[in-house]
Amino acid sequence: MCYAIPGKILKIEGKLATIDYFGENRTAAALDIIPKHGEYVYAQGGVIVKIVPEKQALESLKEWENVFQELKKIDEQTAKTDETKFTREIRQAIHKANNSIPLSEQEIIGLLKTEDSKLETLLKAANAARQKQQGNACCVHAIIEFSNNCKNNCAYCGIRRENTQIKRYRMSVEEIIARADYAVNKLGFKALALQSGEDEYYDEEKLVEIVKGIKAKCGALIMLSIGEASIETYEKLFQAGAHAALLRFETSNKKMYEQMHCTSFENRIKCLKELKRIGFLVATGALIGLPGQTNEDIARDIALARELEPDVHSFGPFIPHGQTPLASERKPSLQQALKIIAAIRLSTPNAKILVTTALETLASNAREKALASGASSLMLDATPEKYKQLYELYPGKTTAHAKIEEEVIKTIKLLKTIGRAPTDLG
Ligand code: 5AD
């Protein structure tokens, strides 16, 4: 968002650019914006989203230089750990991470079984692994939830087809483009997720119009979260300028998946692989705490996410919704959700891990806690206020009545306190 640092292009080879941020190098893809050597850019989620005029970049860098070094120091300090407290499982995970050996599912289960008395140690170890892999890089995306209509009937989801109690809404193409324009050009976001239920009202033509309309006005990474659209449609949307897609596999347990969805598990995995083949940056993950889910299931979820090699991991807690068949189930505790984030970090050390909005319903400090337990990026709800409370996938959405302008200020304050800087990581 407005919390963004321009980087200087050091090298550009084919579609891969090397970018300098105060002496630290990162890589980003040049997909439709091809900068020249020496030019300044904003990159987000690993994609170059905008060329920044030199004068503006230098002014911004001057403001950032001291702050950047200060943030780095804060993060290094907070990521310090007392290794003597590590359990055998944590020690083994770190040893394997350092030697690029993947953890087995059994070893992931070992982490998930960490006792409460050792939880803080596990979370700290994960934070240290994040710091070692990614420094203090952080990325803040905006999400615009543009329709709560859905043709599907997923057992856990508040906007399922059979929920007749919610008021349904659809934003017009113009409204979506205008809101994106506001989020990017007024609030400063550089990555924008567009999310909806699976709503056939938005056919390929409308979706392409939305993506092209946003691209024409905004230098930002567009991430689609529209479910299982056809591969042809996704291909057209990629060509139109949407370069990222968020689609969870929800659970790696095929039986559980098919009990809760109207669609097949194989199709979901096939769709995820196709998205990657097309060239999308892919964000995926699972729901934490589904009824009947075991540690074995979660370890398999983490392993499946690792196999799919997503650019972003998005694991969030299941929060029971009153108008669904799972209404009387329990939600997981914050501790359980944090433990899973830490296990993802230790088993996939270079992962970009998102703090999901659902996680933030578990406690008022959940965002901060997750960022200190291995997570590396955030998503803020930039849906227009009159709609955001109607986008009720789960109850208790903390931001249902929050103003995005205030959320931005609050988030920047938090990131400064914990020493995270907005470089190109997603
Ligand atoms: N609790 C938490 N997350 C939910 N989602 C849907 N319903 C719920 C719920 N009750 C998540 C799904 C979906 C994403 C858009 O929202 O994981 O992929």
Runs with pLDDT <50, length 5+? none
Computed Rg: 20 Å
Q: Order of strands in the sheet with the most strands?
A: 12-10-9-8-7-6-15-14
- Named CATH topology of the largest domain: TIM Barrel
Helix/strand/pairing class, anyone? alpha/beta
Give the N-to-C terminal Cα separation: 12 Å
Q: Helix and strand string, N-terminal first?
A: EEEEEHHHHEHEHEHEHHEEHEEHEHEHH
What are the distinct ligands in this entry?
A: 5'-deoxyadenosine
Number of domains: 2
Number of strands: 15
Biggest beta sheet summary: 8 strands, parallel
What is the correct CATH architecture of the largest domain? Answer: Alpha-Beta Barrel
The amount of beta strand, in percent, is: 15-25%
What is the CATH homology-level superfamily of the largest domain?
Answer: Aldolase class I
Q: Please tally the helical runs, counting DSSP H or I stretches of 4 or more residues.
A: 14
Specify the overall morphology.
Answer: globular
Mean pLDDT: 94
Q: Quaternary state, please?
A: single chain
Under the CATH scheme, which class of the largest domain? Alpha Beta
Helix content: 40-55%
Task: Summarize, please.
It contains 14 helices and 15 strands. With 426 residues, the chain is α/β, with parallel strands linked by helices.
Explain the layout of strands and helices.
Blueprint: E1 7-13, E2 16-21, E3 24-29, E4 40-44, E5 47-52, H1 54-78, H2 88-98, H3 105-112, H4 119-134, E6 139-147, H5 173-186, E7 191-196, H6 204-217, E8 221-225, H7 231-240, E9 244-246, H8 254-260, H9 265-278, E10 281-284, E11 287-288, H10 295-308, E12 312-313, E13 316-317, H11 334-347, E14 354-355, H12 366-371, E15 377-381, H13 385-388, H14 404-418
Parallel strand pairs: 6-7, 6-15, 7-8, 8-9, 9-10, 10-12, 11-13, 14-15
Antiparallel strand pairs: 1-2, 1-4, 2-3, 4-5
Helix pairs in contact: 3-10, 4-11, 5-6, 6-7, 7-9, 10-11
The structure holds 5'-deoxyadenosine.
